[in-house]
Amino acid sequence: MSDVLNPFDRAEFLKNSGWSNATESSVGEDWSQRKIFRIERNHRTAILMHAVPDDDPRATPGHALKDFVAISNYIRDIECSAPEVYAQDLRKGLLLVEDFGHDVFADTIVSQPSVQMDLYGLATKTLIHLYHKTESVAVEIPDYFKGHIHKGRSRVVDWYMPAVLERPNPDGMTDDFLAVLASIEKKLPPVRRRFLHADYHLGNLMWLPARNGIQQTGLVDFQGALIGPAPYDLVNLLDDARRIVPEDIREYCLNKFYQELKSEDAESFQAWYPVLACHFHCRVIGQAIKLAVLNNKTRLMDLIPILRHHLRRDLEHPVLAPLKDWFRDVGVDFSVKTPINLEKAAHFIRPDAS
After folding, report:
1. Closest listed residue to residue 315, CA positions, set 285, 288, 279, 283
2. d(CA 11, CA 21)
3. What rounded mean pLDDT belongs to the chain?
4. Three-state SS at 188
5. Which of 274, 273, 268 is nearest to 190 (CA)?
6. What's CA 30's distance to the chain center, in Å?
7. Which of 4, 197, 300, 328 is most buried (most C-beta within 10 Å)?
8. How far apart are CA 153 and CA 284, in angstroms?
């Protein structure tokens, strides 16, 4: 990474953007290879993003900076809060954008537990606004069902299953899993399609109390946005891979969303919600193993107990009974607190694992 994200490129970019001699402090990295810095000059701040250039083969799918620019403009056009882009050099993977401050929803509910219900409610209202505003989507973004997120639902089979069973998967195991899901989805009503942030959780929402209404929700990290099944973002929020949302808050937000839908839309939304939750958790629990085995990135391993909890809940929904039976038949029990030996797991992963 150091040979790609050259600090001299950042200095030159800031100089050309009118921010020479600004101080730079690291805000951190995300799951891609992007680095984020807070820039300060003359009591003014901005956020500097430095990523592998979009056309570099090492770039992370779904994290193109050019998409961040286009989607930021679109989000602000539909009356939501996204950072304004001040300057860009996409050839070198650099963006300078508006600083939304320090009040991340995830941190705020820890420091001020009394506002947890309010912030989840605000995040839900924002999704309701997006639902109504994006029946047609005026920005070019990928299709959920054709992209890497949807494809990743099979990672529970490709990566998690051999890791916990400590044996390689037999031929056809992934195809069998996908066939069961397809049989379930075939019986569902058509799903409503909308703009999806695609990573809509409290860590990607900024609290902007000086603004009004849903514009108090600052959206960030949306460059992987998709057009796809409407419930997916609410799944990310209320069945978050990082935490177990209190049941009263989860039910309040679900009901609040359903009340804003036409009856036929509510039927579709409620039918697809548990299936998309299962997709999501199957992808992330496998992704945790994949990143740990291939890249020695083990921070997602701490989420395994939460993801097992979510999958147990998902599979109790009647619509997913065939998948619950399938997992039972292949020997995967998400209630078992099996420790995962990553060194051993690496030997059981098939070469065709996705």
Report:
1. 279
2. 8
3. 93
4. coil
5. 268
6. 11
7. 197
8. 8
**Structure tokens that stand for 38 in this block:** 């807070």
CA 343 to chain centroid, in Å, comes to 27
pTM of the model: 0.91
Tokens of 160: 């998690």
* Secondary structure of residue 62 in the 3-state scheme: coil
Q: Which two tokens stand for residue 222?
A: 């949306």
Q: Which two three-digit tokens encode residue 215?
A: 């514009």
Phi–psi pair at 72, nearest 5 degrees: -60, -45
Beta-ladder partners of 81: 218
pLDDT at 118 over 80: yes
- Helical ranges in 45-147 per DSSP H: 65-77, 105-111, 116-133
The answer to whether 51 and 65 have CB atoms below 8 angstroms apart is: yes
In whole angstroms, how large is the CA radius of gyration of the chain? Answer: 21
Alpha-carbon gap, residue 195 to 22, rounded angstroms: 36
Q: Looking at the predicted structure, is the pLDDT value of residue 241 above 60?
A: yes
The set of long-range contacts for 205-212, using a CB threshold of 8 Å and a minimum separation of 24, is: 205/104, 205/105, 205/106, 205/119, 205/123, 206/81, 206/100, 206/101, 206/103, 206/104, 206/105, 207/103, 207/104, 207/105, 207/108, 207/119, 208/81, 208/100, 208/101, 208/103, 209/103, 211/81
* Of 132, 68, 153, 113, residue with least CA distance to 246: 113
Q: What is the DSSP string of 287-340?
A: HHHHHHHHH---GGGGGHHHHHHHHHHHHHSGGGHHHHHHHHHHT--TTS----
By residue count, the chain amounts to 354
89 membership: H or E segment, kind and range: strand 85-89
Nearest to 282 by CA among 323, 244, 318: 323
In this structure, what is the dihedral angle of CA atoms 309, 229, 254, 206, given to the nearest 10 degrees?
A: 90
Phi-psi region of 191 (alpha: psi -120 to 50; beta: other; left: phi over 0): beta
Q: Give the residue-averaged pLDDT of 324-338.
A: 95
pLDDT tens digits, residue range 44-79?
999 999 988 766 666 566 668 888 999 999 999 999
Taken in order 342, 345, 351, 354, the sign of the CA dihedral is negative
Structure tokens at 308: 């097992």
